[in-house]
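Milestone M4 deliverable, item 7.
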Amino acid sequence: MSRKITFRQSLIATVVASALGAVMMPGNALASEADVLKKIEALQAAIDAQNAEIAALKAQVKAKPAAAPVAATTDGKVAKKSDWEWYGLIDMGVESNDDGTARRTIMQSFSSRIGWRGHREFANGLTGVMQVETKIAPDDVANSKLFASRNSYIGLQGGWGTVAGGTYDTPFKLLKANVALLEGNADTMEHIIHGKANAAIGANFHTRPTNSFMYWSPKFSDIQVRLAYSPDENKDTYTGATLGSKRIFLSSAIEYNNGTWNLGAATDKKGDPITLGKDITAVKFIAGMKLANMTFGGAYSKVDNDAGKKANNWMIAAKYDMNPFILKANYGVAGEASSNAKDGGKIIGLEADYVLDKQTFVYLYYANYSGDSLAKGFKFDAGENGYKTLKAGDDASVIGLAIQYKF
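Output delivered:
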């Protein structure tokens, strides 16, 4: 090994050589300066080699393999080129209900489902997306459905948003953040805001239409837009009583949600595909906030059957999280279909949850419907085991204990 001789090394060598020569061999010449320098270099080289070996061992212990490069989806989340997953929800309980005529104790399943969804990435930021979701009723095989009975679609996604076709909840129905807080038959939004309690109008906006074309925008400044349209593809195949369930529709919603505050508006129009002369319409507004362990929300809707019947509906909701317990409540009023019609109603819903983990909780719920004197019969029907009695003027109530597990 070749080394550069420093002035300090040369000076040391000279002193050492002189000392050795004077002490050990006083009669001879002083030890050679060059020999001492060689010994110093040899010792230094050995020290350097040991230090290098120690550094290499330390580096080997600390070293980690480099992470493989991954692709990013259009929303910035890391994703594989192609992937899919199973998912689902089982929500079941024991319920006692009273429709004003009969009282029953039943096993109930609330929107239990299973499905799979996936995506496949293409060039230029384009991603293919799909989902197949099916209703299941673990307590009653007869109420389970064939594949794709719930939200199912295929579509394309990019920086401009998502376009898809299939069967899916309307944007009107999906506008519910911080308002639809309760589970099962205690949820007031389904019956009040979505028009099911307005029996005199005969409108139901809690729908999941088939044959739908959909567009969902990406979020811009916490704002998202959703659109859905279903054409009259069966126009020549139905008349009369089946007309109401086969209307073409156009639904839209816009929502601002920054995680703390949310505001939204939605419309839904169901048109007569034969004459296009009568349109059942609804407008909806929601607002809510989520602050620390408290959540509050409110909603308003106006439904119109284009035949002289209109109703204004509203509700409020709240949730208080005391981990592992959560308390929830809502209250809603279905307006009269016309002045002094006395056909409106009120619903109160209460719920207490005990959270077992992030995916599972047990809950106790209660709901009561109180109708005006001329209100048509009402039924709680969020569960698959619904009762059929609909007697004018009767009130209805439910109480139950259930468990929900998401996977």
